[in-house]
């Protein structure tokens, strides 16, 4: 039942949502998950200094947040060696992607992405009336040449690329990305989603060149920094584009608690190093558990491992469902041929033990059905 | 410097922002405010139970928030005696107003509000290409008849009304609002901003009738609940319209900490009663301080007092500036004739003492200039 007074654009939008949360599954199953390994959250948690800062900030929650996110932008500027005018902070990458599309994509404008890449980006493009053109992954990685060719062919306003990639975990090295950026038409902007950039030692991120007119890069405190629940991320781009966010963004949209926590998390570089080690260890654990059960782990530069189940999407979906029934929340790629895989987020040893126990049973159930 | 690739709509938007935060003023002045009485925050703070809940939730900040805000919507539904399908939760009223405009206002559509009412609503209307038509306040209150006449004349998609009103503190009683609602054309939706509804015992809010097709009502945890920094509010309306928010909203946009805090705040009805008493006491204090200095307090059903300075807008602006120089942050109405007034938020006794000391000096300075 759609409201008759919606704009024609809004009325035509589907009711489907990009993701159903694990809480909805828990409510339906009337049981809590024992291991939450589906949303590439960081069960290792935020820096203890960030937790302490957020807990203290709860007292001050009566004050509106600084709409300019001044302190955090200054710290990020120093951290990355770029000017604060190149940085806009938002309530996670999701919201920033929405503002980016709103600023740059008019109704009917072409946008290029990969078939199977981030659904929430597609949601925003549809939401502002853009027209999506998808290219296929090549060798389980986003295909830079195909993205560029399609963008030229369609005169696209935006190209979306996640590097490292979600949901496959693959990545292009920094030099390849830099070369790719040099080839982008000047009428097009690369939306470079680097949500997983801090998760590993892989050199996937090119040097910052924030005045480059054709690139806007996205970072988040939701992944390696372990603060998905606080909702805070940022975008880095040319001043003219970053400044334009001020025309449309929700100025008081980032919580004061999140700003305070992100400041503390950013400063705690030792903890980030520890998290990176814990991720690397968990990648090994998930890979070993997968292999022991006949599943092939794909290389990853993220905080998750994508495992080939060796059969089709229906089989992988049955594995996912059977894992959920055993209390293990995971997700998987949405389209063929990527959907022959399941995707498991890194987590501490207690989660790995739960996974190790549940996976063989889930595979057996999936095979029987 | 605007980016050449912006949509025509985005390129045409002004660079002005709805509000400059007090932090920006503090940075410019290189001094912190001693009393923060400008943004109608609640210096009485959130419920201690909400503070405790948020502090605890900081540990769990690694988990994404429930995108359905299920628990809070269930609690709100029970609290108000309405169905949860009539409620959408967002990162404060600001964000929800943005989604409302986006859903209902197409480029060129007419929208009616009062000249001097909430700038952030106007910001969203402009941001989505709507055309604002403003009517003047009458007797320092929003003029229901004028709003309705203008909406009919312009075939408006939306009417904005804040009740109780910001920035004047005035209010229409529940029966007047109910009668007003009955007269709204069926092609028009009333955006009823009730941010201040919980601040006083004034009967300004009509009974809930959430299936009424022509009304969407907005509530927040930023005012009486004292959680402005957490960014959480909600809208109540017909299922068809509330459901449509799912097509455009940032599904993971409300922090887990805010959801947890709001649940605790809603349950602590004793504390809300206490806050209401503290607000009433502070209204008396501000009124008395104003009168002692020759300023006339206007009646209020909010957590602020609007004081007539008895001269023009330039004088009131000088008072505001002089108060800021004395460490007291306040705001004031933006347009004549409302701008003969200053607006002072309620606060605890320490803030009242600061105000009492600063006001006579500020008035003297403003008079001299």
**How many domains of chain A, as an integer?**
2
Low-confidence segments of chain A: none
Sheet with most strands of chain A: 7 strands, mixed
Which geometry of chain A do the CA atoms define? globular
What is the number of beta strands of chain A?
A: 12
* Percent strand of chain A: 5-15%
Instruction: Give the oligomeric state of the chains in this entry, treating copies of one chain as homo and distinct chains as hetero.
Output: homodimer
Distance between the termini of chain A: 36 Å
In N-to-C order, the SSE pattern of chain A is HHEHHEHEHEHEHEEEHHHEEHEEH
Description:
2 copies of one chain form a homodimer. Chain A has about 375 residues and is an alpha/beta fold. Chain A has 2 domains: about 10-45 and about 270-369, Alpha-Beta Complex (Aspartate Aminotransferase, domain 1); about 50-270, 3-Layer(aba) Sandwich (Aspartate Aminotransferase, domain 2). Helix content of chain A is about 40%, strand content about 15%. The first copy, chain A, has a 7-stranded mixed beta sheet, sandwiched between helices. The longest helix of chain A is centred in the C-terminal third of the chain and has 24 residues, at about 270-290. Chain A is globular, with a radius of gyration of 20 Å. The model of chain A has no long low-confidence stretch (mean pLDDT about 95). At the A-B interface, helix 1, helix 2, helix 3, helix 5 and helix 9 of A face helix 1, helix 2, helix 3, helix 5 and helix 9 of B. Chains A, B: This is histidinol-phosphate transaminase. Chains A, B: InterPro entries: Aminotrans_II_pyridoxalP_BS, Aminotransferase_I/II_large, HistidinolP_aminotransfase, PyrdxlP-dep_Trfase, PyrdxlP-dep_Trfase_major, PyrdxlP-dep_Trfase_small. Chains A, B: Keywords: Amino-acid biosynthesis, Aminotransferase, Histidine biosynthesis, Pyridoxal phosphate, Transferase. Chains A, B: It comes from Palleronia pelagia.
């Amino acid at each position: 039942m759609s409201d008759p007074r919606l704009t024609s654009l809004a009325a035509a939008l589907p009711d489907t949502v990009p993701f159903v949360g694990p809480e909805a599954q828990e409510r339906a199953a009337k049981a809590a998950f024992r291991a939450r390994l589906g949303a590439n959250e960081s069960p290792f948690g935020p820096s203890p200094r960030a937790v302490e800062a957020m807990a203290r900030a709860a007292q001050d929650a009566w004050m509106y947040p600084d709409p300019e996110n001044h302190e955090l932008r200054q710290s990020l500027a120093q951290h990355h060696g770029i000017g604060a005018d190149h940085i806009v902070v938002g309530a996670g990458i999701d919201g920033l992607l929405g503002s980016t599309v709103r600023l740059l994509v008019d109704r009917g404008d072409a946008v290029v992405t990969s078939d199977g890449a981030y659904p929430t980006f597609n949601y925003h493009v549809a939401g502002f009336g853009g027209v999506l053109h998808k290219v296929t992954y090549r060798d389980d990685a986003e295909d830079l040449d195909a993205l560029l060719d399609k963008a030229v062919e369609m005169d696209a306003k935006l190209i979306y690329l996640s590097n490292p990639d979600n949901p496959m975990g693959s990545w292009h090295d920094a030099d390849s990305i830099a070369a790719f950026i040099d080839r982008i038409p000047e009428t097009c902007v690369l939306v470079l989603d680097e949500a997983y950039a801090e998760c590993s030692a892989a050199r996937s991120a090119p040097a910052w060149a924030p005045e480059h007119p054709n690139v806007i890069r996205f970072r988040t405190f939701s992944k390696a920094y372990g603060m998905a629940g606080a909702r805070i991320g940022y975008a880095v781009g040319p001043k003219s584009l970053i400044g334009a966010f001020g025309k449309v963004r929700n100025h008081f949209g980032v919580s004061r608690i999140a700003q305070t926590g992100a400041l503390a998390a950013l400063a705690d570089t030792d903890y980030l190093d520890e998290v990176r080690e814990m991720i690397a260890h968990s990648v090994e654990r998930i890979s070993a558990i997968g292999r022991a059960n006949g599943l092939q782990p794909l290389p990853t530069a993220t905080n998750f491992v994508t495992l080939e189940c060796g059969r089709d999407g229906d089989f992988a979906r049955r594995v996912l469902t059977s894992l959920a029934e055993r209390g293990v929340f995971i997700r998987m790629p949405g389209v063929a041929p990527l959907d022959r895989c399941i995707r498991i987020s890194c987590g501490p040893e207690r989660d790995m033990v739960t996974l190790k126990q549940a996976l063989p049973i889930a595979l057996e159930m999936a095979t029987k059905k």
